[in-house]
Amino acid sequence: MGRGKFKGKPTGRRNFSTPEEIAAGTSGRPRTFKKNVAEEEQEEEEIEESEEEESEDEEELEKQKAHERYMKLQEQGKTEQARKDLERLALIRQQRADAAKKREEEKAAKEQRKSEARK
Question: pTM for the whole thing?
Fold first, then answer.
């Protein structure tokens, strides 16, 4: 009876890495050398973090562009808020003009009363 899994021996011709392949990092890893699970997890985390950073940067750029577009439309008076603001400003100007006209009329009436009182 065997003790657990049987690991077959490699058959056929063995390929050894050349120094150039080792330096380039393209050499084939022998079966006996296994990558640490921790190293794999760390690499995966780094990849995920870099992807998250890229997506955050893209979102930030998107927000900035959207804000710039909105402000440009706002300046042109094409947004709903800009229209409301312009309407409100027009109403205020009208009220101020009416108030100034009323003050002028009252001032003229007051001066007329003074001149009549002198006579």
Answer: 0.40
